[in-house]
Write a structure and sequence with these properties.
Keywords: Membrane, Signal, Transmembrane, Transmembrane helix. The chain is α/β, with parallel strands linked by helices. Helices cover 48% and strands 17% of the residues. The strands form four sheets. Strands 9-8-10-7-11 form a five-stranded mixed sheet, with helices on both faces.
């Protein structure tokens, strides 16, 4: 009889152990923090993810502190974030030359910049920009590198064909408004208010230009992590869950773009007010255009798009020739 009790105890312990293992591997909620770029479509996506509990559906409880893009990048490389980050694939590749072993885990955002002019401008095409004064973000930014890469592929050298002036987007827009510049880089979602006002129009949708010449998207922002962080099994599990939650949220937005302007979602109402996106025409443009910029899949097509971008950046000397391109973690490796 005593042996029977011992046997039952052993069975109970084994069952409890299996149950704990299953809970730990599949059910346990993992808490993480992921910095978010301020005033972007990505910020809107994460507001919607939290509102609908899609992070917890995939076993995560994610905090999304908001920072300016440059500060986000600094925090990642300094180790302050302690996990996942977001940046241009060009920055990620170049970092490896400085022995910062960054790995690309998924594509998050396509090139969401336009070149805008005043509505009464006689500039109609990119060719018309030659010799004109164009306000752009500083050369040190990933946005400028992507802009230069796209322009070079349509036969415009920004250094020699354009008269460039550098600064933050609001300052560049002000120069165009006052007639002290002919055109400026602008980005969604805040570009929606400029175009809705009737004061500005765009002469170049940079993502569409890239797609037409390369038959693939332009991954402007990718999710990244350091290689040593990824060696931890739980961190790999976290990445897989995050990618699933992010892609499901992106698809929800694509299927229901009204969510981007649904003021019953507390974070969305605050975002629209803070970024001056309150007019009905602005909201209409947001619904029509912003969903296109977010990736809802991480598959072979997206992996290839990152590779194409890195390859062309090397051809145009926007990346050193020895910058690695074998830094992409495909979906089957997560």
């Amino acid at each position: 009889m005593k042996n029977k009790y011992i046997l039952w105890i052993l069975i109970a312990v084994i069952i409890a152990g299996i149950g704990y293992w299953y809970w730990y591997e599949n059910v346990r909620i993992i808490k993480i923090s992921r910095g978010t770029p301020r005033g972007t479509v990505t910020e809107m996506k994460y507001i919607i993810m939290k509102h609908f509990g899609l992070d917890k559906k995939h076993g995560l409880d994610i905090d999304f502190p908001v920072f300016d893009p440059g500060e986000l990048e600094r925090r990642f490389f300094s180790g302050e974030t302690g996990g996942l980050g977001g940046m241009s694939p060009l920055v990620a590749s170049k970092a490896n030359l400085e022995d910062k072993k960054v790995r690309i885990l998924s594509a998050e955002l396509q090139m969401n910049y336009y070149i805008a002019v005043r509505n009464d401008s006689n500039i109609r095409t990119l060719e018309d920009l030659k010799g004109k004064r164009v306000g752009v973000l500083p050369k040190a930014t990933a946005a400028y590198s992507s802009l230069a890469l796209i322009l070079l592929h349509v036969g415009i050298n920004p250094d020699t064909d354009l008269s460039l002036t550098f600064g933050p987007i609001p300052e560049m827009v002000k120069l165009v408004r006052e007639g002290r510049a002919d055109a400026a880089m602008v980005s969604y979602p805040t570009a929606a208010s400029l175009f809705a006002s009737g004061e500005f129009r765009f002469v170049a949708d940079l993502e569409k230009i890239w797609e037409e010449s390369h038959n693939t998207s332009h991954p402007f922002v990718v999710m990244v992590a350091f290689e040593d962080w990824l060696r931890v099994k739980e961190n790999r599990r976290t990445v897989k869950r995050f990618v699933e939650a992010s892609n499901e949220t992106a698809q929800l937005i694509k299927d229901t773009p009204e969510l981007l302007t649904d003021e019953s979602i507390p974070g969305i109402k605050e975002f629209l007010e803070k970024n001056g996106l309150n007019s009905e025409e602005t909201k209409k443009l947001l619904r029509e255009n912003a969903p296109e910029f977010i990736y809802s899949e991480w598959g072979e097509k997206e992996v290839e798009a990152v590779g194409v971008l890195l390859s062309h950046a090397k051809e145009e000397s926007l990346l050193p020739a020895d910058a690695p391109d074998d830094i992409i973690i495909g979906p089957s490796e997560l």
